[in-house]
Amino acid sequence: MCVSSLKIFDLGQNMSLASLRSISFSTTAIIISLNWVTAWSAEPLPTGDAIIRGTAGKSEIIIKTTERLAGAIHSLTWNGREFIDSSDHGRQLQSASNFDAGLPLTAETFNPTEAGSRKDGAGPKSTSRLLHLIAIGNQLQTTSQMAFWLSPNEKSEGNLTKNIVELSNHLLTKRVRIGLRNLPHVIPYDVTFSVPIGERHRHGVFEAVTGYMPAEFEVFWKYDFAKDSIEPLDDGPGEQAFPVILATKDGTHAMGIYSPDQPSRGYETAGYGRFRFQNEKVVKWNSVFRIDGDGNGLKPGEYSFRNFVIVGDLQIVKESLRELQREYSSRLDPVRR
Question: What's the predicted TM-score (pTM) here?
Answer without folding.
Answer: 0.87
